[in-house]
Design goal:
This protein has helices at about 1-10, 15-40, 45-55, 65-70, 70-90, 90-95, 100-130, 140-155, 160-170, 175-205, 215-245, 250-270, 275-285, 290-315, 320-325, 325-350, 355-360, 370-380, 390-449. The chain is mainly α. It has one domain (about 30-440): Na+/H+ antiporter like fold, CATH 1.20.1530.20. α2 crosses α14 and α9 (about 160-170) packs antiparallel against α10 (about 175-205). The longest helix has about 60 residues, at about 390-449. The N and C termini lie far apart (about 95 Å).
Length: about 450
């Protein structure tokens, strides 16, 4: 019966297939999310697991074509919404406590991952990827490009996973504010460094004439600045229209329409759309207090998009590819985690951050998701990178699927433990202050006598 249904489904028009697939994904994600809660896991984990089960490498209820082509637009919209919300959570009031925090902490943990992953791949990549090297390729033209590309992708921290866990955890603590700020800046750094690395690999390491390096890097940086300015401009332009709205319906239409237009036009101009969406959210949240209704309207649209996004992410897990590339996948994941954890501890020590940040922030940076997958798709779209498609796709997508399973529970645990640490630190400070007051009172009484 299942085979008969599958035959009927695959013979239907593509629009009908998409309609059935979206409804099916939403239904099974609701069940998976509920089961995850029963097991005391974040709902993100349930979405990823069900995606692994029904995807092309599982039961194949969602085919590879359906995932990569037909449903891709929903994942793109979800990513832009996530970026927009991350921009809102990039609260500059927190930065005013110490202006170095939003710069030093994310920079150290992001570049820590880049350096450690790149270094490990340079040392071990020749052994692991040696059999995949085409004839005539050299260490500089094959292993080094793979190491640099993987290193730049490793800088990303999944905004969707962190955002979903923070929403489920509830409350705005020191840890959650710093986590979301670090995630937002992580993504900006990852996209920026990836753009520069792409130019370096394509125009220098793989080109006979490396004369275009400065021009290429300059264009990459110009696209980054252009995306930030474009997102800010869209926020300024739609503000007068949102300001006049009193109902959620028109507010949602204006905000969502402006956001999707912002992302689509950014792609049309070859600008990173996620940076444009993040810039739009950042400007609206920090410049216009009345835009609270816009974010509340978008939040009502988030649950189905989040579910579709994470299920699609889970469908990329290939257990066979994992077994074949297990050593390099494990090396990548350990190097990335080590770089982020050590970088986070170094950054928090430099800025003399609270103990809860020093001990737990790095542990919450494990999830890696949609942005990493998007960067892999960019690699696959560049013909010059064809020799790298197989190793990079296998390692990154499998590592993303595993980190999405491991990361959300770990993030949830670190938020809980850091909250306990914040309470304990506040309690100790209160006791110390109370003790000082009692000491001063005793001294005063002694003087009075």
């Amino acid at each position: 019966m299942l085979q008969t249904f599958a035959d009927i489904f695959h013979s239907a028009p593509r629009a009908t297939q998409l309609l059935v697939a979206i409804g099916f994904v939403l239904l099974v994600s609701a069940v998976a999310g509920r089961l995850a809660k029963v097991m005391r896991l974040p709902t993100v984990t349930g979405y990823i697991a069900i995606g692994m089960l029904i995807g092309p490498y599982g039961l194949n209820l969602l085919t590879h074509e359906m995932v990569t082509e037909n449903m891709r637009v929903f994942a793109d919209i979800a990513l832009v919404i996530i970026a927009f919300t991350i921009g809102k959570l990039l609260d500059f009031r927190f930065a005013h406590i110490d202006y170095r925090r939003p710069i030093i902490i994310p920079s150290f943990e992001a570049f820590g991952a880049f350096l450690l992953v790149t270094g490990c791949m340079l040392v071990l990549g020749h052994i692991v990827f040696g059999s995949l090297m085409p004839e005539g390729s050299t260490y500089l033209s094959f292993v080094l490009p793979i190491a640099l590309l993987m290193g730049s992708i490793s800088m990303d921290t999944a905004p969707a996973s962190s955002l979903a866990v923070v929403k489920e955890y509830g409350g705005q603590t020191l840890m959650t504010r710093c986590l979301m700020m670090s995630v937002a800046i992580d993504n900006a750094l990852a996209i920026s460094v990836f753009g520069v690395v792409t130019v370096l690999v394509r125009d220098v390491l793989m080109a006979a004439e490396p004369s275009g390096l400065l021009v290429g890097v300059g264009m990459a940086l110009l696209r980054i600045v252009g995306a930030l300015l474009w997102g800010a401009l869209v926020a300024v332009l739609i503000h007068p229209f949102i300001e006049k709205q009193t109902e959620h319906g028109p507010t949602l239409l204006l905000t969502l329409g402006g956001l999707i237009f912002c992302a689509g036009f950014a792609e049309l101009l070859s600008l990173p759309s996620i940076l444009a969406g993040m810039s739009m959210g950042l400007v609206m949240s920090n410049s216009y207090r009345c835009e609270r209704g816009a974010f509340e309207a978008i939040e009502r649209f988030e649950p189905p998009m989040f579910a579709i996004f994470f299920v699609i992410a889970g469908t990329h897990f290939d257990f066979g590819a994992f077994l074949a590339s297990a050593p390099v996948i494990v090396i990548y994941m350990l190097a990335r985690f080590g770089g982020k954890y050590l970088g986070s501890r170094t950054g928090t020590r430099i800025v003399k951050a609270e103990s809860c940040l020093h001990h737990f922030l790095g542990l919450a940076m494990v999830p890696q998701g949609g942005i990493a997958i998007g960067l892999v798709f960019i690699v696959q779209s560049i013909p010059e990178f064809a020799p790298f498609w197989s190793p990079i796709t296998t390692v990154i997508l499998t590592a993303v699927a595993l980190s999405e399973l491991i990361g959300p529970p770990l993030t949830h645990w670190t938020l809980h433990r850091s909250g306990e640490r914040e309470i304990a630190d506040a309690h100790e400070e209160a006791l110390a202050e109370h003790g000082q007051r009692r000491g001063r009172t005793a001294d005063e009484q002694e003087c009075d006598v």
